[in-house]
Amino acid sequence: MTSSPSTMLRLIGLAAFCSMASMRVCDPMLVELSQEFSVTTGDAAAVIAAFAVAYGVLQLVYGPLGDRLGKVHVIVGATSACAVFSAITALAPTFTVLVVSRAAMGAAAAGIIPLSMAWIGDQVAYEQRQETLARLMVATVTGMMAGQWFGGFATETLGWRTALGVLAVMFAVAAVLLFRHARAAGVLQAPAGAGGGAAFSLRAYLAGTAALLRIARVRWVLAVVAIEGALAFGTLAFVPARMVDGFGLSASAAGGVMVLYGVGGLIYSVFARRWLAALGEQGLALTGATLIATGLLALAWAPAVAWAVLGCFCAGLGFYMLHNTLQVQATQMAPEARGTAVTLFACLLFLGQSAGVLVVAFSVDRGWLPPVFSAAALGVLALGFVISRRVQARGAVAAT
Known about the structure:
Blueprint: H1 5-24, H2 30-36, H3 41-44, H4 46-69, H5 71-90, H6 95-109, H7 113-123, H8 126-157, H9 160-185, H10 202-213, H11 216-236, H12 239-247, H13 251-301, H14 305-332, H15 338-364, H16 369-390
Helix pairs in contact: 1-5, 1-7, 1-8, 1-9, 4-5, 4-6, 4-15, 5-6, 5-7, 5-9, 7-8, 7-15, 8-9, 8-13, 8-14, 11-14, 11-15, 11-16, 12-13, 13-14, 13-16, 14-15
């Protein structure tokens, strides 16, 4: 074998960076898109909801496909498809085409990050898994920061289409590098015993999914991540709109503020090992939920933009504390079918996000963002208490 797992992790991280950048790049564009295509800001949010719905639904395909063909194989194919659909999105002539092409991007991107998590679950022991997932998180958080900032910057200076064109090039580079490395490492073959040459059986797939859903732990993890997606991710998409309409910032400045959300995630990834040792998974979940709630309340009611900026940072730090804890639970809830289980996790996360985006989109055109953010803050806080009571206290393993 000519490569190391760390090299593969870095290249998978590059694909994950692009995937998260593509997911969040349209957040600072909503006001501009509403003006260019003569729709309301709430209607413009369809470019976010379409991506999230397709991303979530396609998990039902990528999970068993990754278990069957090999997770790295599917990640390479999904990254290549993202390059194509990102280019098409950049050229969209109408709002309808833009929404459809964003949905296609979401469908393709769905095969990257969740299967990367599942790959880590296959390769890394539980005791080191939260730290390794935190390393992958560096790539995803950086991608989110880059997407949100560059989306706002490009909207004001180069045009929003430029941002999507740059993403197409980056996806293409990531796909080529990952394919070459994976081929040299010999990891593109189907897993042993996966039956890669046999025809897909819908009955077997449904039976396997039903078997997973009969596991109480699986049902619990999927339920809480759907709620987390609606409350935390659903509101995240409208933070730039809140900064523009509520505090008078430009699109690029709002995108810059959103970078602080990602900075919070990066700080968590750097200190994840120490905080896990000090707080355990229970403490991380509760602390994370408290920080998210504090950040959302600041964004809703801050009298000055500086407090809203601080709230964005707190929400980011808290989200990654809470979500990373759930990610670890997802990688262990069904080890015998980890690819399917983790992608079901992602499916529920983004279907929850889609529901949250639709609810908040209804409120944004009516000036209801502050009360909606406040309700989400209370919901996240309650969710944090529920999660903290259920996760296993494994913090001590991080100190070994």
